[in-house]
Design a protein that fits this description.
The complex is a heterodimer of chains A (66) and B (291). With 66 residues, chain A is mainly beta. Chain A has one helix and five strands; from the N terminus they run E-E-H-E-E-E. Chain B is of the alpha/beta class and 291 residues long. Chain B has helices spanning 44-54, 97-114, 137-149, 162-170, 192-203, 220-229, 238-241, 246-266; strands at 23-25, 28-30, 34-37, 58-65, 86-89, 121-124, 153-158, 175-178, 212-214, 233-236. The chains are: A mainly beta (66), B alpha/beta (291).
């Protein structure tokens, strides 16, 4: 199981691709943007974007701002 | 009834359509010249009412990490009608060009999922430090160039420095957005002369180029001042969100924006040192001193 850095924190996950990762975290039904190792992983490519040990993954959404 | 199912009152502009055109940015038209932020509200319900009352057609949002380990609760997007508002993601909280570019791309990915017209837009902020929130001019210019090359429409927050504003336009910014005063400071337009020079420089030979005064608004009169100078729009957040009565202030901002715009288009009279009577001297029956 890959050990990754997820939103700045170390985490071991079962998923081996981004689509599975979002499902594992319960985030697959809402707007979430994914950045893997500082590059955006577009939604359409989530099933083909691997999650590998040492990956730095950011999951972001929209919040109130000015 | 969920918030998104609630009937949405569309507050009309106080300006009759024949007296002013819409705000045009990057080939898109916005029905209001006021752009408002969605941050710092006491709750989402108040925000939703204020967005409506402001009459804004575009609203800014921020991009932040998803909360993974606690109940996310209410989501901002449940309270914003994405069919009605153009969503303008910002890069607030970025202190160098590379982070701003990353955040802009993540914002685009999110708006792409929502299929919102704002998906290629970004309100670029590259800040110097947390205390002043002043823009870092070097980082801002660098990020503008990179984002423009990547196909973004960059609405660029900057200081009121006319030279910098010119460089950002030259770099391809869709709109230059000088600050009236520091973000959230409520000091209004501190240097109207600088804003006037920016407007003159950026609109020289390009009168439709949009200049939007962004940041520093404290009260409705500040919006009018900016619009009277000839700004194409005003962007504000805190002045509504942190007002004693945000809903009243949201209405005030809508009216002030319209008042300032019409006053600019109407054309003010020149200032004179001495008085000019509004009533005729002809036929006065009284004694006039000195005559």
């Amino acid at each position: 199981m890959p050990e990754i850095t997820l939103n700045g924190e170390a985490k071991t996950v079962a998923a081996s691709n981004v689509a599975d990762l979002l499902r594992e975290l319960g985030l697959d039904a809402q707007p979430v943007a994914v950045e893997r190792n500082r590059a955006v992983a577009p939604k359409k490519q989530h099933p083909d974007t691997p999650v590998e040990p040492g990956d730095r993954i950011e999951l972001v959404t929209l919040v109130g701002g000015g | 009834m969920t918030p998104t199912d609630a009937p949405m009152q569309t507050t009309p502009s106080p300006i009759p359509a024949e007296l002013d055109g819409p705000l045009c940015v990057a080939g898109r038209t916005l029905a209001s010249r006021l752009i408002v932020g969605t941050g710092k509200y006491a709750d989402f319900e108040t925000m939703q009412k204020c967005l409506d009352a402001s009459g804004a057609a575009a609203v800014t949002v921020a991009v932040r990490r998803e909360r993974l380990y606690n109940d996310a609760g209410q989501s901002l997007l449940e309270f914003i009608d994405t069919d009605r508002f153009t969503i303008l993601p910002n890069t607030a909280g970025c202190f160098d060009a590379q982070d701003a570019v990353r955040v802009a791309r993540l914002g685009r990915e999110l708006l792409d999922q929502l299929d919102n017209p704002g998906k290629d837009w970004v309100k670029l902020e590259v800040l110097a430090d947390k205390k002043t929130l002043l823009p870092d001019p070097v980082g801002t210019l660098e990020a503008t160039k990179e984002l423009v090359a990547d196909g973004f429409q960059v609405l660029c927050y900057t200081s009121d420095d006319p030279v910098m504003a010119g460089k950002l336009k030259e770099a391809g910014a869709a709109s230059v957005m000088p600050a009236g005063s520091p973000i959230g400071s409520g000091q209004g337009v501190l240097n109207p002369s600088a804003i006037a020079i920016i407007l003159e420089m950026l609109k020289d030979g390009d009168p439709d180029y949009p200049v939007i005064v962004d940041a520093g608004v404290g009260a409705a009169s500040d919006v009018s001042v900016a619009m009277e100078l000839g700004a194409d729009g005003v962007l504000l957040n805190t002045a509504i969100a942190h007002a004693k009565d945000p809903l009243r202030m949201a209405h005030a901002m809508r009216c002030a924006c319209a008042a300032g715009r019409l006053s600019f288009l109407g054309g003010r009279i020149p200032k004179k040192l001495y008085a000019t009577a509004s009533s005729p001297w002809d036929g006065v029956i009284s004694y006039i001193p000195g005559e």
